[in-house]
Write a structure and sequence with these properties.
The complex is a heterodimer.
Chain A (H helix, E strand, L loop, with lengths): L8 E3 L5 E8 L4 H17 L4 E11 L1 H17 L3 E5 L4 H10 L6 E5 L1
Parallel strand pairs in A: 2-3, 3-4, 4-5
Antiparallel strand pairs in A: 1-2
Helix pairs in contact in A: 1-2
Chain B lengths: L2 E3 L14 E9 L4 H19 L9 H18 L8 E8 L2 E10 L1 H16 L2 H12 L9 H9 L2 E8 L6 E10 L6
Antiparallel strand pairs in B: 1-5, 2-3, 3-4, 4-6, 5-6
The chains are: A alpha/beta, B alpha+beta.
């Protein structure tokens, strides 16, 4: 079974990078806000650029993509350079992550 | 109000009479919204497993299908006229294509809202719409409206809807369907 957030993890133990992995499907953007709050906090206090590594995230539903987009908007508000790392092998990464670049000129998306 | 939105695009243009391999038709009713949300995930997982008994061909296919079904089902629940109103799901697998259909009763305001969202998603430039919607969501922590957009953008889904007035209740029966056709996919 792979429903809900089984197998999903968020690691913000390093100061300038958040590593996410697995599949996450929560029912609303508000539910994601709570799960992503450590990332938002780490982004705000980071010195210099911040990186979000999604290369091991196989799926996020649309509410998750909405919340990820809100983190990009937060980086824009903070004028903080942001890197998002994805995977070339996961189709939605190249489509959606590259679109996020249109939100913020200091967002760099790299696909491994 | 009685209309179809891109409904005719849901038939396969190349092989309209491909044989149906798997078919499931469900009617779901739950006592409250929390139970409904939990059952959305269980139901989408179940249907994805049912449609892909063998995933050796593509290990991500089942997860992808579950996400698509969950988006449609969650949307039907969200737009339902009342928590205890039933929602219907039908999925069928024919050839390389899978058709997923979710149906619910809406009040007039929500039916009109849904029509507007669907029309935008089908008619406008998807990439521009995605960016515009993300910007629109900035001030509302609980708004997404990216479900249909990401179904088309990330999964290459064909999307359509049928809205009919329900004479018995005075509400509207809204059926939203997507077709995922592997023969049309561009990676």
């Amino acid at each position: 079974m792979f429903h809900n957030d089984q197998g999903f993890s968020i690691d913000t133990s390093a100061p300038s990078i958040a590593r996410l992995s697995g599949v996450l499907r929560l029912s609303s953007p508000a539910d994601y806000e709570e799960r992503f709050e450590p990332i938002r906090q780490a982004l705000v206090v980071a010195e210099g650029e911040y990186t979000i590594d999604l290369s091991q995230v196989r799926f996020l539903n649309s509410s998750g993509i909405t919340s990820l987009s809100r983190i990009v908007l937060l980086a824009r508000t903070q004028d903080k350079p942001l890197n998002i790392v994805g995977s070339e092998g996961i189709a939605w990464h190249s489509k959606t992550l590259n679109l996020l670049k249109k939100l913020y000129s200091k967002l760099d998306v790299r696909l491994l | 109000m009685s209309l179809d939105i891109a409904w005719e695009h849901l038939d396969s243009p190349t092989e309209p009479d491909r044989e149906v391999v798997h078919y499931v038709d469900l009617r779901l009713m739950s006592p409250d919204n929390e139970t409904r949300w939990k059952r959305c995930l269980l139901t989408s997982d179940y249907l994805a497993h049912f449609l892909t008994p063998n995933t050796e061909r593509d290990p991500m296919e089942r997860e992808e299908l579950s996400i698509v079904i969950d988006e449609l089902l969650a949307n039907a629940v969200k737009f339902s006229v009342a928590p205890n109103e039933s929602v219907s799901m039908a999925v069928q697998h024919f050839g390389d294509a899978i058709r997923v259909e979710a149906s619910n009763l809406c009040d007039e305001r929500r039916a009109k809202e849904l029509v507007e969202i669907l029309r935008r998603t089908i008619e406008q430039n998807l990439e521009e719409l995605f960016v515009q919607q993300v910007e629109n969501n900035a001030d509302d922590v609980d708004r997404s409206q990216l479900g249909f957009i990401t179904l088309r953008l990330n999964f290459g889904a064909r999307l359509g809807a049928r809205i009919r007035e329900d004479a018995e209740t005075g509400h509207y029966r809204v059926t939203v369907a997507v077709v995922l056709d592997r023969s049309e996919r561009s990676e």
